[in-house]
Write a structure and sequence with these properties.
Blueprint lengths: L3 E7 L3 E8 L2 E10 L5 E8 L9 H12 L10 E8 L13
Parallel strand pairs: 4-5
Antiparallel strand pairs: 1-2, 2-3, 3-4
Length: about 100
């Protein structure tokens, strides 16, 4: 799969990772750590990265093994929602008053 992961955000209860493949953004993952010990994730596969349906199980297994040693899909302590999309832009709050 040859992905390089970079953590871009971390809080007490969540993390965000971006994946690149061949120097281009390929996916983003938001992980949410719940009080009951489970983890829910949202995986966004970028259309431009050319993902195939057959790639998804290996990607999810890689995330499970690389970043989530205390939970896993087979035990039911980890779940993912997988979305295919494209980046339209970034909108951020500004300090300017209008």
């Amino acid at each position: 799969m040859n992905l390089a992961w970079k953590r871009t955000l971390r809080t007490n209860s969540s993390e965000r990772f971006l994946a690149t493949r061949d120097g281009k953004e390929a996916a983003a993952v938001d992980l949410h750590y719940l009080a009951n010990g489970t983890v829910n994730g949202t995986v966004i596969l970028l259309k431009s990265a050319g993902w195939e349906d057959a790639d998804i199980p290996a990607l999810l297994q890689s995330l499970d093994e690389d970043f989530l040693p205390d939970v896993d899909l087979e035990r039911g302590t980890l779940s993912y929602t997988v979305v295919v999309g494209e980046v339209l832009g970034n909108w951020e709050a500004t300090s300017e008053v209008k």
